[in-house]
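hey so i finally got around to running the thing on that chain from the lab meeting. sorry it took forever, my laptop kept dying and i had to restart like 3 times. anyway pasting the input first so we r on the same page abt which one it is
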Amino acid sequence: MAAFKERLDPSAVERIAAGISSAWGDFDAPSFVAATVPGLASLELKARVQHIADRLREHLPRDVPSALAILCASLGPPGAPSGGDPWGPDDPRHTTGMLVWPLTQFVQDHGRPHFDESMAALQEMTRRFTGEFALRPFAVAAPDRTLAVALHWTQSPDQHLRRLASEGLRPRLPWGLQLKQYIKDPSPLLPIVEALKDDSEEYVRRSVANLLNDVAKDHPEWVVELCARWLAEPGGDRARLVRHACRTLVKQGHPGALALQGFAVPPELELLDFMVSPQSVRVGETLAVSGRLRSTAQGPQKLCIDYVMHLQRARGKTGEKVFKGGNRTIAAGEEVALSFSRPMVAVSTRRYYPGTHDVELVVNGVRLARATFELILE
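ok and heres what got predicted. didnt touch it at all, straight out
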């Protein structure tokens, strides 16, 4: 399968041109295609989006509100993909699916002096793709106005607009501009998440959880207290949302987040054994992690079992990587065997260094045992 970026290829440029031509008869589609296609091949995905948006600026009216109206008129029918093909239906007359991304980039780059027209454009575009990246510069430049619009969107009958209200204001959205004001103080976001916490669509509720997971990286107690209140309130089915919202805190062993999900804090356990094998492993081979635990509790207890790899980094530093070992409930006095396999394969996001590495067993946030192995590169 071709790389994801390859879907923004010459045929995609031609589809965008056809959509705009259907909305504006004066659009010079051949000139736009000729100016856009030659520069695509050497670019990564986001750079391709920016490149297409830059060429749009050269071929649309200089008056930004007029250009925004043309782009909106070029769009296909509403119904952004929320789980299927992100490229949308193959409609040669309209811009659909992820082909809308360069259009939202145009709004992001040129729309800030025209706030109302830009919000109206993003409202239409996000119903075909998503405006979560494009909304963020507006949240920085005009935080109160943007927050008010987002709060209005929480009441929309369109699930994609309701999702944009939370996803677009995530403090640490991957690939997106950080919203430092909400990293510092997340409280202005409270009306947004309160309005959407019981949304009828999992698509929207999961975005609320993503927002709270972002906030938890800087304000863990704020998120734990909010989630505890939500779980204590009558009505609603919020356990899944809370679990996803607290996922980073659980991996970090935060006692409050663990307790919210019913894990024993601290666990009542006796460690019987913990080891790794082989003692020396080469990159490309698999490390086996095993152990045995016995419950010393008087009743059943729920366990969150993780193991932490302490990996060598450059210049003698080490870094931690948490891997999920699973959740289970054990009875009083029950003995359980643990067994995990960790392929030590090279990946693009992680470089291995030779030397001594450690593996640590963590149960309900408590670090119970540590074992050592040697990693060999050759």
